[in-house]
Amino acid sequence: MNQRIRPYEGVVILVPEASEETQKTLFKKNKKIIEGFKGTLHSVDTWGRRKLCNPIRKERTGLYFHVTFMAGTECIAELERTMRINDSILRFMHVRLDERVELDKHLQKFKETLAEVHAREAKEREIREQRKRERRPSMPM
Question: Model's pTM, two decimal places?
Answer without folding.
Answer: 0.80
